Structure formats: structure tokens, C-alpha cells
Amino acid sequence: MAGGSRGRRAIAAGDMAASLALALGVVPCTAAAHETANASQDTKTDVTVIGLRTTQATVDRLTLPVAEQPQAITTISREELERRGVSNLNDALRNVAGLSLGAGETSFQGNNAILRGFTTRNDLFVDNARDYGYYFRDTFDDARIDVLKGPSAILFGRGATGGLIARTTRRPTQTTSGEVAVQAGLDDTLRATADANIADLLGSGSALRFDAVVHRSGVAARDGALFRRWAVAPKLGFGLGTASRLFLGYLHQEERNRPDYGIPWYAGTQADPGLPVPVARNTYYGFSNDRLNTNVNIATGRIEHEVTAQALLRVQLRYSNNSRDFRYSEAVLPPGTLRTTPLDRITVSRSLFQGTSRDIFFQGQADLQTAFGLGATRHVLVAGLEAAREGADPVYVTNTNVPSIPLVSPVSRFYADGTSSFVRLRARARSLAFGVFAIDTIEVGPHWRAIIGLRWDSFSTRYTSTRFTATGAADRATTIARADRKFSYRGALLYKPVPSLTLYAGYVNSFNPSGEGIESLVSAGRSVAEANINLPPETSFSVEAGAKWQVPGGRGLLSASLFRIEKDNARVPNPTTPGFNALGGRQRVDGIEIEFGGTPLPGWDVKLGYSYLDSRTLASAPGGPIVGAPLPITPRHSGFFSTAYDVTSRFNLGMNVTAAADRVAQNTPALYLVAPGYAVLDLSARYRLTRRVDLSVAANNLTDTLYYDQLHPFHVIPGAGRTVLVALKAVF
Fold this sequence. Notes:
Layout: H1 13-23, E1 46-49, E2 52-55, E3 73-77, H2 78-83, H3 89-92, E4 99-101, E5 113-115, E6 118-119, E7 124-126, E8 129-130, E9 142-149, H4 153-156, E10 163-169, E11 177-185, E12 190-199, E13 207-219, E14 222-238, E15 244-257, E16 291-308, E17 311-332, E18 347-374, E19 377-392, E20 395-399, E21 405-406, E22 421-444, E23 448-468, E24 474-495, E25 501-512, H5 518-521, E26 538-551, E27 556-573, E28 581-601, E29 604-619, E30 637-646, E31 651-660, E32 663-667, E33 672-675, E34 678-688, E35 693-700, E36 708-711, E37 716-718, E38 723-731
Parallel strand pairs: 7-10
Antiparallel strand pairs: 1-2, 3-9, 4-5, 5-6, 7-8, 9-10, 11-12, 11-38, 12-13, 13-14, 14-15, 15-16, 16-17, 17-18, 18-19, 18-20, 18-21, 19-22, 20-22, 22-23, 23-24, 24-25, 25-26, 26-27, 27-28, 28-29, 29-30, 30-31, 31-34, 32-33, 34-35, 35-38, 36-37
């Protein structure tokens, strides 16, 4: 049952009381995750530390276990995903303190999480390589998800200002096993998944693992939205259990979605902020044939070779080829609409955004991990290099004469756009990335450790585009070529006064090139503006101090962190060149995070987190963010509480609460928008029908709370209403 709690040894009453006090927050903690003693074989190899088995973070280049990493890390286990009825990455990330969700735009669609005040849409990784492309990730093949917080360019190069999201997929293993599951829900969910692992299929030490999903769903209390996708993920492993291992994997995922771009905002200023228009939650302004169609293909090859007992060589190749075809509708209030105007007298226009894109990514990585002694010190050194080529070929279409619609009672219908549309922009971007790095973890005696990391990156982009008029004539051509070369650093000092407690302080930095992702080059989808063309990189740094305490008896991990992230040259409007940006801004986030994960009592699993983020714009330019205003989509307070309890050996009950304070969607003098805070309650239950068959129920947003989930400066998407999901899973 939940947390694998059955069979855990009894805990003394005094220890129980102490653990309960800790779980309630008596001792501070950072966001980190406890992995139970029977952690899934799908995860990375467990490392035993002071009697508590706690896994390493997903990222290979972090050699310490999560309980000792000098940064906040939140881990989401496979079991948690299933208990909450989660089927996509956005929903999985709701139980991460300090993370909020942004809505899509023309240049990008798919997952857009805001972590500690900064977007992660280019900071998604799977199996230690960049997950390039704009699509919605399904979690059917995820063994676990790690959210690493704070600038992390030392690990993978550019990006990762607020942190990164690293997923680990299920690997082939030496045990033949399998499972099938079906799920149905009141939001029209129909979902089926399969996972099969066949050991020794192609000889001793080999294995085939095959995962698949078919999914269809709507969104409870939201008319119009539709998600349809299917995916397969076959993987082969050779040499399992030996010193030389080969893994081959492939993912194919197709989506055929009808996107939901929510409802419009009332305009507002900082003195009188705009807010979502109070229409019925199910109001949908799209056309019945709007679409977001994606086709994702990712192939990965990985070799692991134990050169000696103290040296491990890893080589990995990744190729992905993703296509996108989209058209979505966005309702726009007439300029100057007063909030006193009766809603049934308002007619809204609709922006109709359309286009296609192909995103291609190829990367090679090689790193060597070695352990050695040097005098009185012990070292674990990871050094390596990587090279990548990535590209995008977007086409943006402008639609004219789009019919308007009543604000209160819109009717969705089919819309043929061919007679009133034209290609506005064709672009081509090709980037080359190369990086070399070394990260040394140094142990000095039983109490002190230090981490020193250095990385050098070269990131070059060649970008060309052509604009067109409504008649099809070429209007303007743009060609730029830019190369940026940057160093990234990491330094951290750890002190362990007792084996179960780690105190740490550290410094890290990151950089964001102007050619990072097509949405940076085509920086405004509605006007196809190219405001960041040829800008130097934005640069950021973070300092963080914290403590991580392993609860006696392996009953959990309690942690806290205090941090500052500062971006010292943020992009703001160029005061001398209208339509373009300059690096004249400065942004800062000061924060505190607390998290606990573990088992205070036998059969009772608890996970909770709280984040306080004081985000501020420190410097800006005319037309840019207001100095002193918070950063977009960064609530001052956010958190979650999740628990599951084994009522009997067969029956488990769970509860999950997520909450966030007000969030700013836009923070400029011309437009200042605020979405109200919220709290959402979910309940779950699981019953073991037989030794191999489980029946589970998840009731999400049980109170049917109206809340605004995904924010954008031009639209806001309400969260799903009450949703009940029923799942049946059989293992064999």
C-alpha cells in the first residue's frame, strides 16, 4: 500500500512523538524527498546513509544522496503519481513548493512551470539529457521526478535560473514483471497503460521493457478542452548486472488536443489591479476545430562501463524530432471595458493564433566518475563534456476577420480559416552547444565536505526569418549569428555535526542566451516580435544555506533552506530602440522553503512543503516591469500537505491539499493583473482486491473550488472542477 509501509518495524512511543513534532515543523527543512526502504527498482541505485536508505537525485552528476545535497530537491515518486491519479507532468508538479504554472503562447505550448520566480520551459530533462521541444509530457513511463531548485547551469549548461525538472523513466531490469491499468473519470477520462519487463529475452543479462499509454480526457467544469494522446516507449538493456551495460530507448508520443486558452482579464493598474472576468467557469471561447497536434520522437542510447571499482564511464546519445501544428483562440475584451458594464452586454473579439514548427535536437554526452584519496581527503570527481545541435523551423500564420462572440454565452462552432489567413513569419534557428565540466565532492574527515564545480560553455545560434504582408509579399528579412561563451561555477560547504544532520551553504550561477529556444528569438507570438535578437546572455546567481535532518529509524527527511536568486541583467524594453529589448533590468527572489517526507508512524506516510518567496523587480526601463513589483506567477506563499494511511493491510486512505497566495500575471505600468489565491482539497482511497489487483479512487478538487490555475498576461485558465477518477491496476 502507500509508501510501502507494511512490514516496517515498530517504533517506540517516544520516538513517534518526536517524529510527529518534527513533521509538524518544529525543525526547519529544505525541499527534499524521502525514499522508503523498499524504493522501486525503477529508480537509481540506493545509497545507504546512517541507516536511512535514500536515493541519489535523478541527475548523474550529483554524487551525494538527496539527504546531503546542498540544495533543495523535491522528489515525486511513482507511487505518489498513481495515488493522486496523475497522468501528466503539470499535475505532477502541483506538489512542489515554490512552483506555479504558466499558460502557453504562440511560440511555445506544453509544460511551462515557474520555479522560484523563473520559467523552466527550456529546463526539462529526462534520463540525464535535455528534453527539447514544446509538448505536454505524459507520466506513463516516469519512475520518478526530481525538481532541483536554484541556478543549475553547472550541470547541463545554459538555463536553469530557478532550477530544473529531471525525470527518470522506467529501465529494463533483471526481473520479469508487468502491470496493466485502466482509468475512467467524470471529466471523460478514459486511460489505459501497460508496463512489461521481460528478462533474458535476448540472452543472459538482457531485458526488454515496454510501456504504452492511450489517453483521452476533458477538463471538469471546462467546456471545449480536449486531450487525446497515445505513446509507446520500448527499451532494451544488455549486460545488466555486469560491469558494461548498454541501454537503448525510444519514445513516440502523439497528441491531438483541442486547446483551452481560458478567459480574458479586466485591465488594471498597480493601484487597481486587473482580475479575471467573472464569467461562468465552463465558458469556452475557442472554435470546435482549434487544435494542438504534436508528434514526438526521442531516441536514446546509453553505455555505462565500470572501468575499475572506483571509476564509472557513461556515454549517452540523444536524438529528438518533434513537430507541432496549432491553432488556438483567445478572447479579448474591448479596450476600456469598465467592470461596471453588465457582462451580457459585452462582445469580445478573438485573437486566432496559428502555426507549425519542427524542433530537432541531437546531443552527445560523456562523463567519467571516479573516487580516489588524496592525502587526508577523499574525492568523488565527475568530469565530462557534451555537444549538441538544436533547431526549430516555425511558421506563424495571421488570421483576420475572425468573428466576435458574446462574452457570457459563446457558442463553439467550426471555423474555416483558409480564406482569411496568411503566413506572417517564417523562421529558422540552428544552435550549437558545447560544454566541458568538472564537479569534485571532497570529504575531509567525518564532519566536513565541500563541492567545487567549474563548467565552460559555448552556445552559438544562427537565426534567419522573413516576414510577409497580407498579399504574400516579403516584407522584411532578418539574419543574425551570435556566439556566447560563459563559465559556470558551483561552490558548497557541508558540515555534519552528527551523522544524521547536514548543514550547508553554497553559491551557484547560470546564464540564459538570447538564442535559447524559439520563444526567446520570436519573443512575442501575437506580434511575431524579435525583441531579443543579438542580446548577450542574462546572468544569474544564487546563494543558499540550509539543513537536512534524517529522522531516526529511517522515518523521514526534514529540511529547510534560506536562499537568494538574483538576475542582474534581465531583459527589459530598450529605451532608445522601440520594439527591442536591452539588458537593463534586475530581479531578485529571497525565499525560505520547508519540506518533510517520511513515515512518522507505521503505515502513515506524510509529505509536506511550504515556500515563502519575496520576489522583486529591482531595476527596469520605461514600459517594463514596475520597480518594486513582484515577479509574474510567483506567489509569496505556497505549499502542500499530502498524507496516506494504511487503515488495514488492504485499505489505504489519502488526502492532498495544495494552496497558493495571490499571483501577479503582468506587472507593468500599462497592465497590472492579479489572480486570487486558492486552496484545493483532494482525497484518495485504494483497496487491494487480491494480491495482484488494486482498485483506487481519486476525488480531486473535492469542494469544487473555483481557482485560476495557469496564468498568462492575455488570458487565464481556470482549474478543473470536481473530478472523480477510478482506476484498476493488475500486476503480474
